[in-house]
Structure formats: structure tokens, C-alpha cells
Here is the input.
Amino acid sequence: MRPHLDDPRGPYRGGGDSHRDRQPLRRPAPGRCVFAGDAWCRGRGGAVTGDSHHSASVTVTDSPDGLDARLGEARLRAASRRGTVALSGREVRRVTKLWTQTILPPVVTAVLFMAVFGGALGGELRQVSGIQYLWFILPGLLVTTVSGQAFANASTSLYQARNEGYIDDVLSSPLRSAEVVFSYMVGGLYRGWITAAIVGACALPFIPGVDNWALAAVVLVLTGIIFSALGVITGIWADSFDQQAFIAALIITPLALLGGVFYSVETLSEPWRTLTMFDPIYYLVDAERAGVTGLHESAVGLSVLVAAGVAVIVTLWAVRMFRTGRRLRP
Here is the structure.
């Protein structure tokens, strides 16, 4: 029988581990690193732990390999940036590749609305609140286009990733939750803004002009952020396409139709006037109308500030839902 390496009388004496050097295996506390050179964990906010006889107890500043650790953290940050750009690019390419499903239908729908309401009915209505009817409805069409497409893209893309299982590739990457949420939101923002830009370009020859380009752009940016973040939340929450379609068909669409897109709230009677005033999309439409036409029925500054606050809240909510990891796997 072959002698054991730790047999002090055998030919392999000294070849095994010394009993005095043996240390029990220790499981680090959650969120803590095992090795001092574990730059990935430190880059994610972890801390080094270990035994006093080992280098694991050495902090980054005390370790002779501190420079290498800092270089590792820099490489990690660079890898995170590349990963964020790659995931965002994948979402953008998805929109561009499927343009007949993602871009063309909303553009055709908005152009038909302009042709029917602005052309056919515009001859009868002439003016609303003292301005051309096509000019009046254009801001609402831009807002509803951005909101609907940003929501649809973010929710559909994330739900498909969960349903088909390739969300695991994203979850196993070193990307932070905020970076992943940002990447999915980029696809929704791109889809919403590109469709709105095409619709606006189609309408521009038939309207007097744009009163305040900066305000109009800011409102569309906030609209895209709000609804793409809501799309991420829905994509995490939904367990089926039916649940996802429920949010889009029975919440987003009614809010858009009651948002004062085709009418002035001053012409409404109760209870429709009150319902419109409680519609959050109405204030986005009114602020966009102020940017495009100069006409508004509410406090534009307050509407923009509230929209900015809502954008921050729903984005943080989406990041928190993704960080918890619940419902991300079917």
C-alpha cells in the first residue's frame, strides 16, 4: 500500500500539508470577497475577508498587488461600459432589423390620423383654440407615438428574453442592474424617438412651424424615459403576453385617447373634463403643444417638473425590480 503523504515515517514525509498550516474552510459573508485580488467583487462594492495567516486579510491599500487590483477595477469598468454599449446596440439593431414591425406601423397610423382628422375633418373644424387643427393635434400624436412605442419595445424585448431563457446571459454578465435597465430602455427610446421624428417630418410641410424646439424635445425625451421604464417594469412583472397586452391595451391606450390629443379640455363638459384633468398623459400633451404651437391650458413649467420627477421615480423602480431578481426567470 502506498504511504500517505502526511506519514512522518514514510518516504514522502514533508510532501503533504503541515497540520499547523491547515486552516478550516470559511464561507465569506454575503457580499464579501474571498481573495484580496478579487477586483470584481471590490468593484461591485464588496469587501475583503479571510484568515489572519493569509493574504485575504490584506486590504487593497496594504496589498503589494494594490496597483494590479486597481488596474483590474479599471478593466472591469471598461468591460461594463463595453457590455452596456453592446446590449444597447443589440436593442437598437433589433428595432432597425424589424422595422416593418417596429417603425412602419406606428408611422402609418399617425399619418392616417393626420390625414383623416387634419385633412378631412380639418376642413370642417377649421381651427381649434385659434390655430389650425392639424397643428393642434400634431403634439398629441407625437407624445402618444413616443409613449406607445417606447413602452411596447422595452416590455416586449425584456419579456421575450425571460420567456426564451436568454435573459440568463444578461444576468450572468458583470453588468450592474442600472446598466441592464438602461440598455433595455435605450431600445424603447430609440424606437419611440425615431418614429416620432418621421411623423414630425411628414407633418412639418403642412404646419406653420415649431414655436419652441427645445421645449418640444425635452417633453418627448421625458415621455420616452417614463414609458420605456414602465415597459421594463411590465416586462419583469408580466407572466404571459396576455398580461403585457392588458397593460398596453387597457391602460396606455385609454390614457392616450383621454389625454386631449384631438380636443381642447375647455370644450368638454363634466365628467369628461375632470377625467381628462386626472390623466397624466394630458399634461405631457399640453406641454408638447406649448412647445410646438405656443398654446397651452396648464402650467407648462410645473408639468415638465412633475414629468421629470416621475421619470426618475419609475426608472429607480425599474432598477430596483431588476436588482431583486424576482420574476426574471420563468
Q: What stands out?
A: The beta strands are 127-128, 131-132.
